[in-house]
Structures are given as structure tokens and as C-alpha cells.
Amino acid sequence: MWSPGSDNDSSSNKDNESSIISIRRLGKSFETGSRRKTVCYQVLKDVDLEIRRGEFFILLGPSGCGKSTLLNLIAGFEKQTEGELLVHGRPIGRPEKERAMVFQHADASLFPWLNVRENIEFGLRMRGMKKKERAEISARYIELAGLKGHERKFPRELSGGMKQRVQIARVLANEPDILLMDEPLGALDAFTRRVMQEELVRIWGETKKTILFVTHDIQEAVLLGVRIGIMSIGPDSRVFEIMENGLDYPRDLTSREFNLIQKKLQGIFQDDLYFHL
Ligand SMILES: Nc1ncnc2c1ncn2[C@@H]1O[C@H](COP(=O)(O)OP(=O)(O)OP(=O)(O)O)[C@@H](O)[C@H]1O
């Protein structure tokens, strides 16, 4: 058992506390409609958020509030319309390997003609890394993601949970600083999802990566997050509250403390005030 923020970072406490992502008064709007009549839809407005190095941060909010939009901005897939978004103190340009995205549907991101090992090595090969070094790195992440013995299988021969493991291993092989996870377990059955939640906590503990994880599942948020950023309903969505979750890992879904946090979050979403934020 270990506590959030205790032994999860081998670097100094100062480093542990420092921000890796700084978001100030961030806004994002989209122009929609036809060429004749365009409508501006303001998804995010005045988002302020600091993500600490090495933390497991959850973005929690209902469908359509703008969680993926915020993740896409951090990934560099989209550009903000207002405000500031800094990673390592620098404005974000294009997508880079230091900020890696894990998508909900692994099928869309894995190459069907490559086996597990080749999929994991893909980014390394593209960067011109030598075969021996690639093999060492992929072996490490195959082991870490629990894929040993499945290296030669193709995506079509894998279960949903295994495909998600391959996606995570491939992302980790590129040594990102930040993992951006957009409902990565949303497409899995309940049993596999539970297993993968535990695995993710283990992988996070072993790699010390900063994880920004999007979900609309309150139980998942309490199970995984060190801090939980709660988003208001769109349009003009923002992170209006951040809840600290100091429960030790691995977390017990049946414990009184777990249920108290879960109930507190449920209360926020059921309160009439939430709909008028
Ligand atoms: N490229 C786009 N053009 C126009 N509108 C967009 C675009 N991308 C997102 N939106 C709108 O922004 C809003 C937020 O979408 P987003 O996917 O970020 O929400 P979400 O909280 O991730 O939802 P879910 O949990 O259902 O995935 C939605 O109303 C969506 O229609």
C-alpha cells in the first residue's frame, strides 16, 4: 500500500510539487454551421489549472462538457482561442512525443498489419532507432504492460483489454513526460475495466509519469485520481473545483472512506446549482 505523493516520485519534493502543465484563462470556441451562417460555440472559457509533475489527475464531467477538447489542446491537436497553455513553462506548438495520447478505441490507433512487438516499436523505428535498442525497449514495456507471451500476436488476435495494453505500452515506449488518456477504459467490459484500472495504477507507480485522465465515471475517478478536476456543463465550461483524494493505493471500492468521496462527488453533480454554474 502506498500514499499519493509519498513514494511516487524519486525526484525531490520540490520537483514533485512543480507544475508540468499550466493553464490560465484558457478558452476554446468552434465555428459551426454552413458557409452562409456560422455560429460560434464556446466550449471552454476561463479554464485555470495547474497539473503537478508525476500526479494522476482526473478530469471529470458529463458528456459534452469539453473534456476531450481540453485534452486535445494539451496534446497540440487543437489551438486555443484564448488564454495561455504552457507545458514545462513553454507554449505548446504542434503535437510532440512528450505528450502522448491514449484513445478510447485502441483499434483506431494500432496498425492491424503489425504484431504486438512491431506496434510497440513503431515510433522508435520511425525515429531511426537501431533494431537492438528497439528490441530492448519494447521488451521492457511488453513486460510492464503484462503482454509477455503475446508479442507475436496481431491486433485481431487480441482482446479489448490486451489491445489497450498494447496502446499504453506503445505510448510509454516513446518515453513521454505526460500521458493524456481520453476515456481509455470506456470501451471495455466491467470486469476487464477493473483489471485495467488496477494495472494502470501499478504502471503509474512504476513509471512515475504524469497522467491526465478523462472520465465521466465517478467511481473510476475516485479509484484512480490523486486530484479530481470537476468540469462544469458546457458551453463556457471550466474546471470549477478540484478535489484532493488522499486515499492510499490500491484503493478499496468497498471502504467507508472511498464511499464518502464518491458520495460527495455524486452530490455535486446532483445539486441544482451544478446546472447553473
Ligand atoms: N471540431 C469541433 N467542431 C465543433 N464543435 C466541436 C468540435 N469538437 C468538439 N465540439 C463540441 O464541443 C463540445 C465538447 O465536446 P468534447 O468532445 O470535448 O466533450 P467531452 O466532455 O469530451 O464529451 P464525451 O464525454 O461525450 O466524450 C461538444 O458540444 C462538441 O459538439
From TrEMBL:
TM annotation in the entry: none
Gene3D superfamilies, per the entry: P-loop containing nucleotide triphosphate hydrolases
Keywords: ATP-binding, Nucleotide-binding, Transport
ABC transporter domain ranges (all copies): 21-258
Claim: rRNA-binding is one of the keywords in the record: no
InterPro entries on file: AAA+_ATPase, ABC_transporter-like_ATP-bd, ABC_transporter-like_CS, ABC_transporter_ATP-bind, P-loop_NTPase
Family matches, as Pfam families: ABC_tran (PF00005)
The keyword Cell membrane is annotated on this UniProt entry: no
GO molecular-function term, one example from the UniProt record: ATP binding
Protein name: Nitrate ABC transporter ATP-binding protein
Organism: Paenibacillus stellifer
